[in-house]
């Protein structure tokens, strides 16, 4: 069965520091994609970063990078130089041949 | 990335009524997805809508409750019928990325529905 696990309901980080949000996944399909989304209090889902299962290098998008460890089935999101505007819910998601399934999310709070 | 708009952005509705949510995309897409996010929860897929065919519903969701239309490649509607307070959620439209970005998936701004 396909499953996404986010074990951190909430995280705090000091402004300008880096933070890692954890995500583990489970699938028997060799081809899959991993996603991270940010959801601010407004409710919109903002696409942050994508990692394909066959990608050799970790994905990076600006201050976001995805630490992809295939053997461990983990896809942690690293946010560098945190900003106050990074405070939001963060969802890890996976898509195989089927549909996109989501973890329960991590609420990130950035402290000034 | 695709630009997606939804109408309305939010609404407060009475029990027993229906609401139709519109989703418009700035490019032609094959598949459109409708998700529900109940308060404090993660996202759950309601159905997948392809142009010219019936929507495919996920377990726990039925066409009578959530009828979907997909008249063309840039537009879809989701109706929440005979609403109850349990239908209070954010409803999100989603599409795959265009062209060589089809492996990505983008979301509209959502419709925040409150049923009283």
Topology as H/E string of chain A?
EEEEEEEEEEEE
Uncertain residue segments of chain A: none
**Topology order of chain B in helix (H) and strand (E) letters:** EEEEEEEEEEE
Q: What's the end-to-end separation of chain A, in Å?
A: 41 Å
Radius of gyration of chain A: 13 Å
Shape of chain A: globular
Classify the helix fraction of chain B into a percent range.
Answer: under 10%
Structural class of chain A: mainly beta
Mean pLDDT of chain B comes to: 93
**Number of strand segments of chain B:** 11
Mean pLDDT of chain A: 95
* DSSP strand tally of chain A: 12
Q: How many DSSP helices of chain B?
A: 0
Roughly what fraction of the amino acids of chain A lie in strands? over 45%
Give a structural overview.
- The complex is a heterodimer of chains A (112) and B (116).
- By secondary structure, chain A is an all-beta fold.
- Chain A is 0% helix and 53% strand.
- Chain A has no helices and 12 strands.
- Chain A has strands at residues 3-5, 10-14, 19-21, 24-26, 33-39, 46-52, 60-61, 64-69, 74-79, 88-95, 100-102, 106-111.
- In chain A, strands 2, 5, 6, 10, 11 and 12 form a 6-stranded mixed beta sheet that branches. A 4-stranded antiparallel beta sheet of chain A has the order 3-9-8-7, with no helix packed on it. A two-stranded antiparallel sheet of chain A has the order 1-4.
- Chain A is globular and about 40 Å long.
- Helix content of chain B is 0%, strand content 51%.
- With 116 residues, chain B is mostly beta strands.
- The mean pLDDT of chain B is 93.
- Chain B contains no helices and 11 strands.
- In chain B, strand 7 (68-72) and strand 8 (75-80) form a beta hairpin.
- Chain A binds chain B through residues 33, 35, 37, 42-47, 50, 52, 91, 95, 99-105, and chain B through 1, 33, 37, 41-43, 45, 48, 58, 90, 92, 94, 103-110, 112.
């Amino acid at each position: 069965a396909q499953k996404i696990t986010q074990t951190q309901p909430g995280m705090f980080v000091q402004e300008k520091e880096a933070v890692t949000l954890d995500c583990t996944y489970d699938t028997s399909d060799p081809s899959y994609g991993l996603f991270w989304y940010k959801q601010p209090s407004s409710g919109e889902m903002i696409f942050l970063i994508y990692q394909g299962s066959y990608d050799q290098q970790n994905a990076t998008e600006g201050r976001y990078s995805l630490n992809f460890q295939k053997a461990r089935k983990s896809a942690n999101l690293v946010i560098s130089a945190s900003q106050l505007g990074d405070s939001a819910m963060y969802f890890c998601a996976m898509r195989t041949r089927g549909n996109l399934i989501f973890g329960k999310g991590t609420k990130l709070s950035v402290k000034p | 990335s695709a630009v997606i708009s939804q109408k309305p952005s939010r609404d407060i509705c009475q029990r027993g009524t229906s609401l139709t949510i519109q989703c418009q995309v700035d490019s032609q897409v094959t598949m459109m997805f409708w998700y529900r996010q109940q308060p404090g929860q993660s996202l759950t897929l309601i159905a997948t809508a392809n142009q010219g065919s019936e929507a495919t519903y996920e377990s726990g969701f039925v066409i009578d409750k959530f009828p979907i239309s997909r008249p063309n490649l840039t537009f879809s509607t989701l109706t929440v019928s005979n609403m109850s307070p349990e239908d209070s959620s954010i409803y999100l439209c989603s599409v795959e990325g265009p062209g060589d970005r089809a492996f990505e998936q983008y979301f509209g701004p959502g419709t925040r529905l409150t049923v009283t």
